[in-house]
Fold this protein.
Amino acid sequence: MGNWTATTRRRVRAFLAVAKDEWAPGYVEAKRLLDLTAERKPIAKRLPGVSRSEARGARLLARQHRWDSVRAAALWRDGGKCVVCGDAAHDAHHLLYGAGMRQVHESLETVASTCRAHHDAAHAGRESTLEALLLWSRAHGYALAVKALIRRLDKIEARASKRANGGTT
């Protein structure tokens, strides 16, 4: 539980640093959540008027605002163009995979701007797209993204090898 509250506090502080205005959507909820998670007692027991679902909603809202800011920054960084083909980018693709990896390491270094076609291809595990993202990540020095993409490509290769051998290793 201690690690969860530290992570939550870090994310909410990041959101508050971006929002800076108490009239920004989610600011009051995020500020209240930060106050609630500062102490290590369960949220529902801290304030009588806050239910667990309200506290969870505030956390989700803060996470969504964080993602919106990272996505917008990635699209701006890449000039609104897909890093794979150069077409207009409408999506920001997480380069990290796995349980909780995206939220823990969600930053500009772990997100790439992609067009819809390459975003779908990356999710489908198309090797050519993943290799292009790997080259892009290496060129920018994003070590965490490089490691994750290499791991994903290795898994795809192992799966293909297993299929070629008739299901045996």
Summary: The chain is about 65% helix and 5% strand. The longest strand covers residues 91-94. Strands lie at 91-94, 111-114.
